[in-house]
């Protein structure tokens, strides 16, 4: 299963990067969201899947899944959320201000 | 010695205050104090009982960078030159520079230069030497740019700095390697390990690097091009830095390192080869010039080449002749520069085509110039010091040792002829200079000012130098035995015979001098007929053009190159970055055998999971193809919620909950922000762009998958999380291990995660609010 | 407990940043508060620095969870040196800010973002945990996002997007790579990772992961071929923000490379570190070419970040004690001089009314001090002795020769020349020449803007001339970096 998950995360990265390489801001941001999903899936996969119960202690259970990746993902989800929100508002403002959402026309030149 | 080195720069600190009263008392008088006192102080060391002395002061002992000063015959000669000529030039400048100029600046730069120059010639520590060396370049830069409102002046300043700093850096490279070979930073200790250096594989490299430093500083071909442009500096500066002292720092450097490098024939080939080319080229080009200072600049280049060539010969006689000529050149060239300055000052021009017949108007200057130029030309008269050194030069050129290197052998045979050839032109430009200026027709109408003799103050310094020319000419052994003998000894390593006579009999060198005078006179007389040569050679060919071309291309190419990839396109940046990551990481994986796959320790595959995974994969791919923005955002939501479902499968209830909440808010935010933006358009990129994007993204995804599989297959250790499970309740007081980790074991993470969210919130707030405030206004 | 000292440089700015939000509209108050807090923070950082010099590495196990299980904060000599330098830069920035920023920018939480940036940077320097490093990266990046867009118009917003996107991508790559590493070695504590990697002799997959990490940090550090995002976004915001970015952000990336490639991945130096030398060569060349390509004075300075980073990465690549201590010296010097240059160029552009070099002339007649400060900083930057850039460069080059790396030595020397040229152009074209009658000098403002710059530059000059006081420290750092077991021992206490 880990291999399938690794492939899935790889697909998320692939599609994310592909979107990232597009011109339109919205697509680019969708790309970043896909990449962060991919990253979280990778983290989870790296901690061995389904090797025990959810890491909530119970006297009767001895095997638990690795709790550390979960904790890391939680932190990371929250952080990505913050960044994505900021990026969204920024993208909105930037495209309003510059009158376009096409990143290729947002190149700018040296003198400004 | 410490005081001597730093006295000028300390004086420089108070000059800005002293210059406030420049209208009452010319700032130059205060400045004079420094070179004069140092000159007198060092004069006491002259004598047949001269002993080397040294002094050491800690600076950065842990790096072996200390102010180690070392005074031997070589440094003594230079110290006296720097302070002696320095005093004369300062005195001269008092009359040359009007009090309306920014005297404070001028003298501060000049004093910094003096410190730098004393430092160069007295330092035994290579890094300290380098420090002062760059300081001379910097002060020279400032002095050339003194009249920086002139375009030429800025050009010359930059040029001189680039070339000399280039040389300085290369010299530094050489020093670093030498220090690495010998394990010491002291030049004297390096000399004692000369054989170790010679045996090192880096021997040639250090030689080339150090020679580059010397050649750029001493304006050797083809690095001479900065010197003529440096003539934009006020004339006292040209006389001082660009003729008598700074340009001789390169000579000093070669002389200092001669005991190390003389072991190699390559030293002779490089130093004498370039020296002799410089001699010829400089004297040949000097005749072409029309600016008095231009002639003198090329003449300086040529003379430096001659000294360099003699150092390269490496024979006893040659080294002595070189030392002798260093002194002689300083006397006659210094005075000639000062006379050129007088002419410029009094007539308003330095263009030799406009000058002529000034003899009657400026008799004293004319006399000084006659002595100076004749000495420079090496006219065989017993009261001109230039003759002696020139004849010694010829003599030495005829007595070079045999050599095993073929190129050295060719050079050895050719050098006497080349020497005569170069000296003929030296004779020609000397005559051209003095006769063109002082004899012939007067063109007073062409001159901006009516010329008259200079004030006495400006005449004293060149007169003193010319007296030096005559005295040394008449009694050469006066300076030789008590003084220059030690200089030559310091370079050669053994005592050197220094007795000089005017008349040696009809030796070959005398015939060579005679040829120079006869052919030179003929060429000088019929100058007009052959001047056309310069139109063909070098014509438009010059190293100046190479420099200008280099600088222009440096700027234009760097612009073209940089603009070619720094085009502001985020796509381009990402593609370049991703390509680098993919290529390098794949290669590394290949080289190290990093890819491993191990099926033994995997979770079982279940239908539900596969189904969710497929749905997510499809949704992810669909985001690329959809054209409706709302649809795209919702499809993205499918991926996010799918992930939450996977979290449930994989026993991560907290994650699933968080992911659900976050995903919902994110989708809402997406919708909110993009409600106002244009819909997704047909992707318009061409097939090339498309396939490029596809290759890059697939390769990157593949890379990540492969690394993930390998990483999972090479678990080598028990994860630390076992400890968390064991201690979560005992020490953390919670059953939910993930929560305990978050709030306790990794509490700092969580604290700062909240900080991140807080900043994001404030950032968004200011992003929205600051604008609406602006719009309201 | 004395080891709590370690967290103070992170905590003080954090708390100050939070307090500053409370009265963000009261400009006078918030300015004074920020200045006082920064001074306090600097004093504390100096004390921590002093303490570590006297007593050795400080290790704080947060929440009393023993290493390697909890997050450890490690104040070793390298960390505390950089934290102190950060505070010195911050000090100059906070006194420059009121005269450079608009009142609106100030009141919209500039000081909060500023403090949190400092907190994040200090945290990144101090943490001994790889995932925690990621979190601090996010703190400083988020603060930098907020700063870069602060009160921006068209251009600023446009450049900010690029900046955020690239950094977001590399952050995601970072966190993924941490997961890969965790999978192989089962820990995120740097000391323990180092220990475990050496136990399996850095197997192939670990070297591969090492390269991924290198690319993550290299993107933040602006190495070739990853630096494209840097120059233009860096000059878009206000000079004081550019200065903080230029001085601190890329340096955190470099610091991380220092850490990771001296503690963890040191068993395949023939692949990793040799690769860095090549990267360094290209970074040096392309960076300085960029600096020569433009007439925009701010851009000249921004591009100059890149070759400086090149020198440091060369130091790591050469990987011997001399080169590493040189790289650390260079790093400290560069943080200070880059901040000074950004502030300086910002002041020049403001006072001259343009940042286009072709439109400037003769500024020295109006602002002589400004000109001389620029003149000196050009030499500091190019590494001309006796200024501080020289010591670092000399050591790196000496290290290169010890390792028989002649090519990088020669490139390093040539690039120094071009660096000097690129900055000296500003002096020659902007300050020399005839007086520009169009300029109405504003000397009082110039003086206020120059004071922080003069403070930084004199500190930098002091670093050079007084090298004897500082070199032993960097020498010891170099020694520590070459002996990772020292770090591992002090953290894991085995």
TrEMBL record, chain A:
Q: Does the keyword Cell membrane apply?
A: yes
Q: Which InterPro entries match?
A: CPA3_antiporter_subunitC, NUOK/Mnh_C1-like
Superkingdom field: Bacteria
Annotated membrane topology: Multi-pass membrane protein
- What's in the keyword line of the UniProt record? Cell membrane, Membrane, Transmembrane, Transmembrane helix
- Bilayer-crossing residues are 6-21, 28-47, 67-92
Question: Do you know which Gene3D superfamilies this protein is assigned to?
Answer: 1.10.287.3510
> What is the protein's major site of localization?
membrane
Q: Pfam families from the entry? A: Oxidored_q2
The UniProt record lists the keyword S-adenosyl-L-methionine? no
Recorded GO CC terms:
plasma membrane
Its annotated compartments are: Cell membrane
What family does this chain come from, according to its entry? Belongs to the CPA3 antiporters (TC 2.A.63) subunit C family.
Q: Which NCBIfam families match?
A: PRK08600.1 (NF006372), PRK09094.1 (NF006573)
- What PANTHER family does the database record attribute to this sequence? ANTIPORTER SUBUNIT MNHC2-RELATED
Recorded protein name is Multisubunit sodium/proton antiporter MrpC subunit
Source organism (scientific name): Saliterribacillus persicus
UniProtKB/TrEMBL annotation, chain B:
Q: Which UniProt keywords apply?
A: Antiport, Cell membrane, Hydrogen ion transport, Ion transport, Membrane, Sodium, Sodium transport, Transmembrane, Transmembrane helix, Transport
Its GO CC terms? Answer: plasma membrane
Family note:
Belongs to the CPA3 antiporters (TC 2.A.63) subunit A family.
- The reply to whether Protein biosynthesis figures as a keyword in the UniProt entry is no
Origin species, per record, is: Saliterribacillus persicus
Membrane is among the record's keywords: yes
Checking InterPro entries in the record gives: CPA3_Na-H_Antiporter_A, MrpA/MnhA1/PhaAB, MrpA_C/MbhD, MrpA_C/MbhE, ND/Mrp_TM, Nuo/plastoQ_OxRdtase_6_NuoJ, Proton_antipo_N
Domain NADH:quinone oxidoreductase/Mrp antiporter transmembrane: start-end pairs: 123-409
Name-wise, this protein is Multisubunit sodium/proton antiporter MrpA subunit
The compartments listed are: Cell membrane; Membrane
User: Transmembrane residues, as ranges?
Assistant: 29-48, 69-94, 106-123, 130-149, 161-182, 194-215, 266-287, 355-379, 414-435, 456-475, 502-526, 573-597, 603-625, 632-650, 656-674, 694-713, 750-768
Q: Where is the MrpA C-terminal/MbhD domain?
A: 615-678
Which residues does the UniProt record annotate as the domain NADH-Ubiquinone oxidoreductase (complex I) chain 5 N-terminal? 60-107
TrEMBL record, chain C:
**What keywords are assigned to this protein?**
Antiport, Cell membrane, Membrane, Transmembrane, Transmembrane helix, Transport
One GO cellular-component annotation of the UniProt record comes to: plasma membrane
Record's bilayer topology term: Multi-pass membrane protein
Membrane as UniProt keyword: yes
Q: Where is the NADH:quinone oxidoreductase/Mrp antiporter transmembrane domain?
A: 128-417
Q: Which GO terms describe its biological process?
A: ATP synthesis coupled electron transport
Q: According to the lineage, what is the superkingdom?
A: Bacteria
The compartments listed are: Cell membrane; Membrane
InterPro entries reported in the protein's UniProt record: CPA3_Na-H_Antiporter_D, NADH_UbQ_OxRdtase, ND/Mrp_TM
Q: Which GO terms describe its molecular function?
A: antiporter activity; NADH dehydrogenase (ubiquinone) activity
Q: Which family does it belong to?
A: Belongs to the CPA3 antiporters (TC 2.A.63) subunit D family.
Q: What is this protein called?
A: Multisubunit sodium/proton antiporter MrpD subunit
